[in-house]
Design a protein that fits this description.
single chain, alpha/beta, 27% helix, globular, binds fe (ii) ion
Length: 491
């Protein structure tokens, strides 16, 4: 953890005093604290001091007391360490508009700090100063609007920061225009200023925050594997009971490759644990269990079928019985109580390490906004969209679409630190891919196609599990389609 923290501070151009580092290491949430310290130090200071840690810890005691009342995550599994939960209790009593203002400022601060570390953007100026500059200039802003000019189909991009907004021209067929700009993402641009003041500054290049390349890989020293699953939809008539039974047999070493099964120590489930109630029109017709508490009781029974040596981390999804606004909190104690002891329940999204490997787990509701916004994107290939998430360093940037965003003071959907594995669900398909050294998984589903999905033209790829060797991040697929487990290397 010490090396991880030092590297984290270095990635943010901060030097940390050794006594300060020790205090951070001794705290319950080292990474959360580090994040706040980087924020506190701001762009002005390269140092993180002991006094700064003490100041923050004083405040932290208060928020810890508040969040202790929130949920019971269950005991921490061995080899597991929580790094950060997306959901944090905000300061109460703020007006909603003010709260959204704080959310976007938090996003802008976090992502512009990452962008500023690239040499092209180190001299980025506030938007309001742009008109006074000449030649080339760089700026960092949040995308407010994008539209096409009628005749020549160039893009006109409106970027915004604390100081104001500016319209920029992105000529079509240039590199900068090739990657579509998404509303509310934070980008850096180098612009050429026009001599004639009535013309728009022209974008020469556009940069995303991007995951850090060339990180030293974090790997498990021991022969340990993690199984990634998603979208169980317990309580749905379409839950694939025979396929689930095949998975249970496999994990108990009574299927193919019992040696491999024995090495699995961790299970991660990326949301939609149950089917829920009232999630879409006429859902009751598709339900085998019409009571949501009964659905979680059944989930508890299903998870007890798995070997008890496994530690299981669960995040909620849009079908689960927690507030739908993201980041979503962990399951409430009343529901957590029906799940076995070896289940650890955290918020959606959450960042945690398994045997030293950093996992970012996010259900993936934002696919519903990102897929329509990115030309060529589809539910059949969610990992392509996940690459965009990593480039943007944000899981759900678009505000006002299908993904409700919670008005919290800190944007918990920013991707920080760069993970080793990004896992999502929600798309009900199976995808394994890589991006800049990050393993991408879309972890299938245990629900057959529903009428609702047929209507929406989503064809699921159910009953797959991704088994990741935590020593080298190689993937083995467990395919339980047809109620019989098959194991194969790769996707
Ligand atoms: Fe789902
Ligand atoms: Fe979902």
């Amino acid at each position: 953890m010490r090396e991880q923290l030092v590297a984290y501070f270095q990635a943010h151009q901060k030097l940390v005093e050794s006594s300060a580092l020790q205090m951070i290491l001794d705290s319950t949430r080292p990474l959360d604290l580090s994040r706040e310290l980087i924020e506190l130090a701001g762009d002005g200071s390269p140092f993180v001091t002991r006094e700064m840690v003490e100041g923050l810890m004083g405040r932290a005691t208060l928020s810890a007391a508040r969040s202790a009342a929130r949920a019971d995550p269950g005991p921490e599994p061995e080899g597991y360490a929580l790094i950060a939960e997306g959901f944090q209790v905000g300061s109460p009593g703020r007006l909603p508009l003010q709260a959204y203002g704080e959310l976007f400022q938090s996003r802008y601060r976090a992502l512009s700090r990452m962008l500023r570390s690239s040499p092209e953007l180190s001299g980025a100026r506030p938007v309001s100063e742009l008109r006074r500059s000449e030649g080339r200039a760089s700026l960092i802003g949040m995308v407010r609007e994008v539209h096409q000019t009628q005749e020549k189909r160039h893009l006109v991009l409106t970027l915004e920061d604390d100081s104001g907004a500016v319209e920029l021209l992105v000529p079509r067929d240039t590199d900068a225009a090739r990657v579509p700009f998404l509303v509310d993402e934070v980008v850096g641009v180098v612009v050429q200023l026009p001599r004639e003041k009535d013309r728009l500054p022209r974008v020469v290049s556009a940069l995303r925050p991007e995951v850090v390349l060339g990180r030293s890989p974090r790997r498990s020293p021991s022969r340990t594997r993690a199984l990634f699953l998603s979208d169980l939809h317990i309580g749905s008539k379409s839950f694939l009971a025979a396929e689930w039974a095949a998975l249970v047999e496999f994990l108990h070493g009574r299927g193919p490759d019992p040696e491999l099964a024995k090495e699995i120590q961790h299970v991660v489930i990326a949301g939609d644990l149950v089917d829920g109630i009232g999630i879409y029109p006429n859902q009751e017709r598709d339900l085998a269990i019409g009571d949501v508490f009964e659905q979680y009781a059944e989930l508890g029974r299903r998870l007890r079928e798995l070997p008890s040596r496994l530690s299981i981390v669960v995040v909620p999804g849009n079908h689960d019985a927690v507030c739908p606004a993201e980041p979503q909190p962990a399951l409430p104690p009343s529901i957590r109580a029906s799940l076995p002891e070896n289940v650890h329940s955290v918020s959606n999204p959450s960042t945690f390490s398994l045997e030293g490997v950093v996992v970012e787990a996010y259900h993936g509701r934002s696919f519903d906004d990102l897929i329509p916004a990115i030309p060529g994107a589809s539910y059949a290939r969610p990992t392509e969209v996940m690459k965009r998430m990593l480039a943007m360093r944000h899981l759900a940037p678009i505000y006002g679409g299908r993904t409700p965003l919670a008005p919290l003071a800190r944007d918990g959907l920013v991707i920080d630190p760069s993970p080793d594995i990004l896992v999502t669900g929600h798309a009900h398909t199976f995808g394994v891919d890589q991006y800049r050294g990050v393993l991408l998984l879309n972890a299938s589903t245990w629900q057959a196609e529903t009428e609702y999905q047929k209507m929406r033209n989503i064809s699921p790829v159910p009953a797959y599990g991704a088994v990741v060797d935590l020593r080298d991040l190689s993937v083995t697929t467990v395919d339980c389609q047809g109620g019989e487990a098959h194991v194969r290397t790769g996707a």
